[in-house]
């Protein structure tokens, strides 16, 4: 990875500019994922019952929110929903492990 500051996509002049920008966004996404999983830690701590970890109505709400946000951003809602399906399922699995670890 490079220390070069990324330029906005519309200002990219070279593939090096594009790659620097993509790498910077990837680092931001990883930081956001780490923050999101911090909320899974909090949920595991707060939820009194293990059965509460899997909340299908909440999952449906999250996926609907993502579809709307993707539409609003002008990107594929189907792709966003596919990515979030994986993210939510992995988040549930992670939260179950954390929940068990706190009470085991």
TrEMBL record:
Entry-linked Gene3D superfamilies: Chorismate mutase
UniProt keyword annotations, A-Z: Isomerase
Record-level Gene Ontology MF annotations: chorismate mutase activity
Chorismate mutase domain location: 9-99
InterPro entries per the UniProt record, alphabetical: Chorismate_II_sf (IPR036263), Chorismate_mutase-related (IPR051331), CM_dom_sf (IPR036979), CM_II_prokaryot (IPR002701), Isochorismate_pyruvate-lyase (IPR008241)
E.C. code: 5.4.99.5
Domain of life of the native organism: Bacteria
Pfam family, one: CM_2
Name this polypeptide is given: chorismate mutase
Lineage: Bacteria, Pseudomonadati, Pseudomonadota, Alphaproteobacteria, Sphingomonadales
